Amino acid sequence: MGWRLTLDDIKDLGYRARAKQIIREFDKPRANGHDLYIELQRLLIIDKGETDFVEETKNYPYGMDLPWVGRADQYPNQELDVKEWLNEHVDKSQYLMMPVNCVGKYKDHWRWIYFTNKVDAIRFRLTWYDLLVYPGYG
Predict the structure, then answer these.
(1) What distances in angstroms separate CA 116 from CA 21, 22, 57, 110, 119, one per listed residue?
(2) Alpha carbon of 70 to those of 67, 102, 121: distances in Å?
(3) What pTM does this model have?
(4) CA-based diameter of the chain, in Å?
(5) Among 23, 30, 73, 116, which one has the highest count of C-beta atoms within 10 angstroms of its own C-beta?
(6) Does residue 58 contact residue 47 with C-beta atoms inside 8 Å?
(7) Could you give the CA distance from residue 49 to residue 41 in angstroms, rounded to a whole number?
């Protein structure tokens, strides 16, 4: 049959409170059930995505923004060079580049890299980060 969701499944307390408010609005006269349903669905999707993001990155506590990712016009070879460096210096299981579940409060984390090891994160930052964020640095 179908999948059933309860308010207890919503992890974020603010989202849970808003979901309760939306549910109460269904009973009001002339309530627009379609719009309320869409809003509730959107809220549940964001909560689920945020929960999935936390789950996806929980084993990678050391993260940093990579503002040059997706900007090939300004940094034409940087992504390839960084990926090559990562392949040579860090085991693939020890880092996560560009997490999949970037929604809600994590929507700007799509171009982040996360490491399990503090030493790998520091080495990456010392090798790449300042050069890529501040071109001409070093």
Answers:
(1) 39, 40, 9, 18, 9
(2) 8, 15, 21
(3) 0.77
(4) 66
(5) 116
(6) no
(7) 12
